[in-house]
Design goal:
Mean pLDDT: 95
Strand content: 5-15%
Number of helices: 12
Oligomer: single chain
Radius of gyration: 19 Å
Order of helices and strands: HHEHEHEHEHHEEHEHEHEHEH
Number of strands: 10
Helix content: 25-40%
Structural class: alpha/beta
Bound molecules: S-adenosylmethionine, 6-(5-methyl-2-OXO-imidazolidin-4-yl)-hexanoic acid, iron/sulfur cluster
Length: about 325
């Protein structure tokens, strides 16, 4: 008999809410640390097998030279970050790297481009990448900037499973971080992704100097979506020299854990990804993030342009008794 900690969707209690108030979310964030950790861990075990972590791998398919002004981003052309620009990669190179990622244990491959939005025949090339990566038996994800509905439908048709588009922060703090596209632009792209039938990967960045109220505002936006994003990346700012946020004060690590915990409590069936920033995190901090419900990471040695501690993950998983989540493709 198969036993699983996770209830099947049909038998699961209908405890997924989309009507969280911002006050409720602020109150969750302000709970005594161990009360919040206990709550989040309990919610996690109700919905997921304990200790399983989904593995995604990133590749930057077009690097740098971006016209946008995202204050955190090493790829914005207006900041002098010393990053080498690279044109759109050849399909073969992407497929070779995806094959390596699969051999390294990744089950989802995420292709990122430093675009405001795809232009000209960019999308045709990306669609070929998506088809070929999917043919390897990997889930596919892309993050290419803003999409109109036609572009979203084209990607869906090519076999794209997930589209990543982050809200980044609260509506109030957003204008301090990005001025070249609005919060509504982001919400519109997310609607197009949903309307095209793709799964949504949407989260944000913490540690940008925001207040707890801003973190509540971001979580409130995400938790109000119906359905919730299937994947919720919680990025800790990677401070890159030359960007406007390079000197911002460090976030209290416990506040990082609180953010992950409240994402878990408010979006109980979503995969919450411990995303950028792991390179700077201690093993103990990562353990706390897993305890409160993070169940996805980026594997490998690189995110898009910055370092990722993929080479150390095998040892960390062994020490914590974590196991990679089985590939959905393998289950078919
Ligand atoms: N250019 C596309 C866009 O922004 O829509 C897609 C790629 S962009 C690099 C994807 C996401 O990476 C951003 O939305 C942001 O959340 C995250 N990101 C970028 N730079 C980061 C940094 N320094 N630290 C943490 N996350 C970062
Ligand atoms: C997401 O939320 N985080 C990833 C992925 N989605 C595309 C990107 C992190 C980028 C970190 C900085 C860099 O490596 O350039
Ligand atoms: Fe460009 Fe994306 Fe970086 Fe913003 S986050 S500057 S849109 S690559």
């Amino acid at each position: 008999m198969q036993t699983s900690v996770a209830p099947s969707p049909a038998s699961a209690p209908s405890d997924v809410r989309h009507d969280w108030s911002r006050d409720e979310i602020e109150a969750l964030l302000a709970l005594p640390f161990f009360d919040l950790a206990h709550l989040a861990h309990t919610v996690h075990r109700t919905h997921f097998p304990a200790g399983e972590v989904q593995l995604s791998q990133l590749l930057s398919i077009k690097t740098g030279g971006c016209p946008e002004d995202c204050a955190y981003c090493p790829q914005a052309s207006r900041y002098d970050t010393g990053l080498d620009r690279e044109a759109l990669l050849a399909v073969d190179e992407v497929v070779t790297k995806a094959r390596e990622a699969k051999a390294g244990g990744a089950t989802r491959y995420c292709m990122g481009a430093a675009w405001r939005s795809p232009k000209g025949n960019d999308l045709d090339v990306v669609c070929t990448m998506v088809r070929e990566v999917k043919a390897l038996g990997l889930e596919t994800c892309a993050t290419l900037g803003m999409l109109d509905l036609d572009q979203a439908l084209t990607l869906k048709d090519a076999g794209l499973d997930y589209y990543n588009h982050n809200l980044d922060t609260s509506p109030e703090a957003y204008g301090d971080i990005i001025t070249t596209r609005t919060y509504d632009d982001r919400l519109q792209t997310l609607r197009h992704v949903r309307d095209a039938g793709m799964s949504v990967c949407c989260g944000g960045i913490v540690g940008m100097g925001e207040s707890p109220t801003d973190r509540a505002g971001l979580l409130h936006q995400l938790a109000s979506m119906d359905p919730h994003p299937e994947s919720v990346p919680v990025n800790l700012l990677v401070k890159v020299k030359g960007t406007p946020l390079a000197q911002v004060n460090d976030l209290d690590p416990f506040d990082f854990v609180r953010t992950v915990a409240v994402a878990r409590v408010t979006m109980p069936r979503s995969h919450v990804r411990l995303s950028a920033g792991r390179e700077e995190m201690s093993d103990e901090l990562q353990a706390w993030a897993f305890f409160v419900g993070a169940n996805s990471i980026f594997t490998g040695e690189k995110l898009l342009t910055t370092k990722n501690p993929g080479g150390k993950d095998g040892r960390l998983f062994a020490r914590l008794g974590l196991t990679p989540e089985p590939s959905p493709a393998a289950a078919e």
